[in-house]
Design a protein that fits this description.
By secondary structure, the chain is α/β, with parallel strands linked by helices. It has three domains: 217 residues, 3-Layer(bba) Sandwich (FAD/NAD(P)-binding domain); 149 residues, FAD/NAD(P)-binding domain, CATH 3.50.50.60; 64 residues, BFD-like [2Fe-2S]-binding domain (Arc Repressor Mutant, subunit A, Orthogonal Bundle), CATH 1.10.10.1100. The chain contains 14 helices and 20 strands. The strands form six sheets. Strands 3-2-1-7-18 form a five-stranded parallel sheet. It has a five-stranded parallel sheet with strand order 9-16-10-11-12. A three-stranded antiparallel sheet has the order 4-5-6. α4 crosses α7 and α9 crosses α10. The radius of gyration is 22 Å and the shape is globular. It starts with 9 loop residues before the first strand and ends in a 16-residue tail after the last helix.
Length: 487
């Protein structure tokens, strides 16, 4: 059970998605004081992205899985006198004071409005539930207007009921392509097809191998049947072992070339097929948002996730992590990890009775996530569909050829020097879009997976902030405590 000191323990949760909401609710139940910070306008994160309350549809619940869980968690955090919920609140950096305590620097309000509040928080315990964003592999034409990440397309469909095109191609890898398709057809888009890069030989084994280990995740079969039903009703083809290898158009995308690929994602010559499309939605998995964890000093695994113990505590005392920054496990894993992290951050113990089910289910969905990654993960052959003039870094307009040439001339395997000589990763996004791809191409060119030890995920300034906002940084935290007060 929670320790006696929990009631005065201040737990700050960063992120208002499934993991963050579950963590905040668990910390409240353990009698901690909680501050929940969400950078968006609404709670729910990417998974429960929805219309604003004033424009919510009558059938909102039908558009989201596990909506009842969201409404329960939302009511818990907003209805608790011991919880302060701050939306539009972005942690732009994390530092340590002279005694070693963590200090969060936060800006609150509309970005670039010129009147954002800036303040600091020094929590007794910190739960990082910052989630992940789409990873998109480059291909010729991927910078054309009309090429979107699948996450962006789904966000518009869910939060605004807008389809980003009339003839849409969805491509990439992973089960996320299926809910994106469902969201787009619900917004009346004509989805030309869904193309999964992994062939059936990559996908089939994850279910056949020791299927009894998936028993706790049996409801996922129901979700899969729901997606299959949407494919059938809307006559959307789902094809495996195929990838978009080029987008065509002048001022915007007009068509794409899809080719069959082998198990390593190398295009098979002679299998190319052209599809007309005015929108292409691409996702090749997710990149965890670990900037704050790195700033805190947390140990990061070779797979670039935050290492945690059974309590979801990182290598840094008082810092916990849950959700997609510990593994790409989906909403179920995030909910259970968040519950454990929040309870333990508040002073509880992982062996407490309140956590028995969460600990059991976490193991199930962590295993489930590992199988999905083995089946849908990125294969190295994707670099073979790149042309010399393919853009690698959008911000700096660095081409694949100029990048490879610079690496060959300098002979450097270090990411720092490579960024300086090629400009790749030095643009306004600071490598969020191209960073992992830059690292992959560098390793491919040099054969050195270690380099100088630097990584593109290290960003001391986690989010861009105006100098005018910096000038007022360090003020006291605001006093309002509910999401509704943000409007």
């Amino acid at each position: 059970m929670a320790g006696e000191h929990s009631r005065n323990r201040h737990v700050v949760v960063v992120g208002g998605g499934p993991a963050g909401l579950a963590a905040a609710a668990a910390a409240i139940s353990a009698d901690a004081r909680v501050t929940l910070l969400e950078s968006g306008d609404e709670l729910g994160g990417q998974f429960w992205r929805h219309l604003p309350q004033e424009r919510a549809g009558a059938q909102e619940a039908r558009l989201h899985h596990n909506w009842a869980t969201y409404t329960r968690l939302r009511e818990t955090v907003l209805g608790s006198a011991s919880c302060k919920v701050l939306t539009n609140a972005q942690v732009w950096s994390l530092e340590h004071d002279p005694t070693g305590h963590i200090v969060l620097n936060i800006a609150r309000g509309t970005v670039d409005s010129g009147n954002r509040e800036t303040f600091q928080l020094e929590p007794d315990a910190l739960v990082l539930a910052t989630g992940a964003h789409d990873r998109t592999l480059p291909f010729p034409g991927w910078t054309l207007p009309g090429v979107f990440t699948a996450g962006a397309a789904q966000a518009f469909a869910k939060s605004e009921r807008i389809a980003l095109g009339q003839k849409v191609v969805i491509a990439g890898a992973g089960p996320f392509l299926l809910p994106v398709m469902t969201s787009l057809v619900s917004a009346n888009a004509n989805v030309v097809g869904v193309f999964e890069a992994n062939p059936l030989r990559n996908l089939g084994g994850w279910v056949v191998d020791r299927p009894w280990k998936l028993a706790g995740a049996s409801h996922k079969a129901g979700e899969l049947l729901e997606y299959v039903g949407a494919h059938v009703r809307h006559r959307v083809p789902y094809k495996t072992g195929r990838a978009v290898i080029e987008a065509h158009g002048t001022d915007r995308v007009e068509a794409v070339t899809v080719a069959k690929v082998d198990r390593s994602w190398r295009p098979i010559m002679g299998t190319e097929r052209r599809y007309e499309a005015d929108a292409v939605c691409v996702s090749h998995g997710f990149t965890p948002r670990i900037e704050l964890a790195i700033a805190a000093g947390c140990d990061i695994s070779p797979q670039k996730f935050v290492r945690v113990d059974d309590t979801q505590r990182s290598s840094v005392d008082g810092v916990y992590a849950a959700g997609e920054i510990t593994s790409i496990g989906g909403s179920d894993a995030a909910l259970y990890e968040g519950q454990i992290a929040g309870h333990c951050a508040a002073g509880g113990d992982v062996v407490d009775p309140e956590l028995r089910r969460a600990v059991r289910q976490r193991a199930t969905f962590t295993h489930f996530a590992g199988r999905l990654e083995a089946a849908h993960g990125i294969r190295p052959g994707w670099t073979s569909w790149l042309s010399d003039d393919t853009t690698l870094c959008r911000c700096e307009e660095t081409s694949v050829k100029s990048f490879r040439d610079a690496v060959a001339v300098t002979g450097s395997a270090g990411i720092r020097s490579t960024k300086l000589t090629t400009r790749a990763g030095l643009g306004i996004c600071q490598g969020r879009i191209c960073g992992r791809n830059v690292e992959a191409l560098l390793v491919e060119a040099t054969g050195d997976a270690v380099g100088d030890g630097a990584r593109t995920d290290r960003r001391p300034i986690v989010a861009p902030i105006r100098l005018a906002d910096l000038a007022t940084a360090g003020a006291a935290a605001p006093t309002n405590s509910t999401e509704e007060s943000d409007s």
